[in-house]
Structures are given as C-alpha cells and as structure tokens.
Amino acid sequence: MSLPSELFVYVKIPGVIEPSERGRKYEERIDQALGEQGCGSVAGWGSSLGNAQADGSRAVEFHRIDIDVTDPTLARSVLQQLLPTLGAPPGTEIHYTRDQAKLQDVYTPSGWVLDQPIANTHRRHGTKSPGR
C-alpha cells in the first residue's frame, strides 16, 4: 500500500557528494530531526544523473532524499530550518504535494522561496539506494 502523495516529501540537493558523506551530513541528521518532532522519517535516497556528455558519460547532477511524513507542514518547517545549518547549497529544493498540486520550496542565497509550482519537465536518471 502506498502513502497518499501529501505524505511524501523529497529533498533535492544539487552537486556531487560521496554517498557515505551524504549519509552522515544529510540523511542521518534529517531523519533524527524529523523523528524528534514526530513528523516523519527518511525512507530512501539516491543520486540522479545529468544529461549525457559527448563521450556518453553522465555526471551526478543532484542527490534526492525521500521522506515519509505524518505532518507535511511541520516537516517542511523542520527541513527549512535544518538544511541551511547542514550546509545545503542554494538551489536545494523541498518537493511536496498539496491539494494534488506539485510544489517546491527553493533555497536561495537570500532564504527560502516557498510554494513554487513544479513543471512536469523532470526526467529521472539515476541510481537509488534502498531506504532504512
């Protein structure tokens, strides 16, 4: 049985970071903070690849952290406060669904820009690790 889309959030972190460092820097601390607030837990993670280069190779474009939530509003608030303290770079996004609309909060150098619509132009390429 799958969760309603409103109870699924994911964080999209741009850049290249080794999986072991990413786990220590992000997944574990996100899981702990959400658990302390009783509003969610990390369900899985993975890396997504960019477009193919001339030689056919594809580099990691961003990392994705999948989160199951019980309180989407509180979970977003926890993530918005936590991610900058963990060193998440500008361009980090929190993706979520509200009233069947796909939305994102985007971290910029001047702070979070909230409730931005997501165009259905994303292509998924990548690898995914199983959740906890």
Give the total of beta strands. 7
Distance between the termini: 17 Å
What is the highest CATH level, the class?
Answer: Alpha Beta
Which second-level CATH architecture applies?
2-Layer Sandwich
Residue-averaged pLDDT = 87
**Largest sheet composition:** 7 strands, antiparallel
Which secondary-structure class do the elements indicate?
alpha+beta
How much helicity do the residues have? 25-40%
Q: What fraction strand? A: 35-45%
Overall, the morphology is globular
Number of helices: 2
Q: Rg to the nearest angstrom?
A: 14 Å
Order of strands, widest sheet? 6-5-4-1-3-2-7
**CATH topology heading:** Alpha-Beta Plaits
Q: List the helices and strands in order.
A: EHEEHEEEE
Count of the domains: 1
Low-pLDDT stretches are 122-132
Looking at this protein, list some descriptive labels.
132 residues, alpha+beta, Alpha-Beta Plaits, seven-stranded antiparallel sheet, 39% strand, disordered C terminus
SSE layout and pairings?
Elements: E1 8-14, H1 19-37, E2 40-49, E3 60-69, H2 72-85, E4 93-98, E5 101-108, E6 111-117, E7 126-129
Antiparallel strand pairs: 1-3, 1-4, 2-3, 2-7, 4-5, 5-6
Kindly describe this structure:
This protein has a single domain, classed as Alpha-Beta Plaits (2-Layer Sandwich), CATH 3.30.70. The protein is 25% helix and 39% strand. It contains two helices and seven strands. Strand 5 and strand 6 form a beta hairpin. The radius of gyration is 14 Å and the shape is globular.
